[in-house]
Amino acid sequence: MAGRAQPSGPAGSGGGAPGLLPLLLLLLSAAAIIPRGDGQNLVTEDVTVVEGDVATISCRVKNSDDSVIQLLNPNRQTIYFRDFRPLKDSRFQLVNFSNSELRVSLTNVSISDEGRYFCQLYTDPPQEIYTTITVLVPPRNLVIDIEKETAVEGEEIELNCTAMASRPATTIRWFKGNKELTGKSEVERWSDMYTVTSQLLLKVGREDDGVPVICLVDHPAVKDLQTQRYLEVMYKPQVRVSQNYPLQGLTREGEPLELTCAAFGKPQPTDMRWLRVDDEMPQHVVVSGSNLLISNLNKTDNGTYRCEASNAVGKSHADYMLFVYDTTATTEPAVHGFTQLPNSAEELDYGDLSDSRAGEEGAIRSVDHAVVGGVVAVVVFAMLCLLIILGRYFARHKGTYFTHEAKGADDAADADTAIINAEGGQNNSEEKKEYFI
Which of 325, 285, 327, 324 is nearest to 306 (CA)? Predict the structure, then answer.
């Protein structure tokens, strides 16, 4: 038959007279090939292999009766007849041959090797079963294209990740740092290969600067295939004001004040200046670069002092609210301290207000402690006063008592007579007199 290899020689060759038995068996198989079905004595498994790797095909007989086993390719050319290889393809190698098994390996597998391979057993009637080789092709390239190499905070940028020439089509996943994001994928088929492109739209902020964006491929032919690009984001300055002196405590009249302004941004701020909000800067204030110094504080210095910084992206500022106290002041109200005010509602950064709020909370705690101390002192004083009063009262009133000195004088006309007529008579009158102070 056309397309059938002769079992006695190389496939497609006409040289050499085949032996009688092989020729007879070949004719029988051509005349009656039984398709794959239940009750077959042959056993095999499908094979999945990555392009370039080795595929192993096994034809096994459950109940061997010394029948001949052969293996055919998808074009029904004989690869192996018993332990003989008629096909001139050195990639096929015999791994094992016995009456119960024919095992063959195929090295350097390619897409063209994909298809059905047939195991045949020459019995009466002949039996046949097939195994399918599936070839997986990993992506050739994995590339991330980014719309802008450098973005500005608040912008939405586009990133595209392309996985080329794979089989089957890949699944692409996106990550920003450790957080998974959702992209939109498109699949393009070319011949037997698939190219997948995934698009990601990402709105970037200053916190994204230097963060990797990862394109990860899910494909049965590869593991942990990924590529990444690092984001570069420019943003406006972040400004902070710190108090160098006094380190702690109140800003009192006659004492010095030194402030330092620090600004960080991308690109690094190049323009930094101090100003007084809603008023002119006092003449005795000395500004040197990022430092502000007032050597001798007075009440006229009260107000809000602002440090502004700018770069190519924009301008930001931080404020310091100064309140000068009397030299006798011991408690600081909550209005004194640092603040950083946003230029707009979208720029509100609670972290920028931390220094101011910490100062306010400390001042409130100082006020609370003073109030509690005063209340305790009043209560202790009131209790001491009460103890003194009670002590004096009990000292003067030691109890109630009765005497019998006037016994027998109930009928006296006056007090003197009663004393004379009382028990003991006149003789004891002087001893029984009582004097009340």
Answer: 285
